[in-house]
Design goal:
- With 117 residues, the protein is an all-alpha fold.
- Helix 2 runs antiparallel to helix 4.
- 23% of the residues are buried.
- This is Non-specific lipid-transfer protein.
- Plant non-specific lipid-transfer proteins transfer phospholipids as well as galactolipids across membranes. May play a role in wax or cutin deposition in the cell walls of expanding epidermal cells and certain secretory tissues.
- One of its GO terms (biological process) is lipid transport.
């Protein structure tokens, strides 16, 4: 009986390890869009960064604590920038530093979000 229980326990541990390695992002594109929407004027024209924009950037950074979340945020940002002809990539690249936020990747259309850790 003890051997059977040990086998069941081992199978359960293996299942937990396998399922945790396929973690999905809890952060959605809708979340990302909501947080960066106050940044639209800066992303289009530059200039002063609105306070609520930096609040959103900091909130997004705080929400993206796992690798899947950071990759999801990266992909969502790229999708947002591609869909707007008015966003300037140079403004997006400096936005985190202007808000005092350090993110582990460059906000750029050339960033490979799959490599973001």
């Amino acid at each position: 009986m003890a051997i059977k229980m040990m086998k069941v326990f081992c199978v359960m541990v293996v299942c937990m390890v396998v399922s945790s390695s396929y973690a999905e992002a809890a952060l959605t594109c809708n979340d990302v869009t909501k947080k960066i929407s106050p940044c639209t004027s800066f992303l289009e024209k530059g200039g002063e960064v609105p306070v609520d924009c930096c609040t959103g950037v900091k909130g997004l950074n705080d929400a993206a604590k796992t690798t899947p979340d950071r990759q999801a945020a990266c992909n969502c940002l790229k999708t947002s920038f591609k869909s707007s002809n008015n966003f300037k990539e140079e403004n997006a690249a400096v936005l985190p530093s202007k808000c005092g936020v350090n993110i582990p990747y460059k906000i750029s259309l050339e960033t490979d979000c799959n490599k973001v850790k």
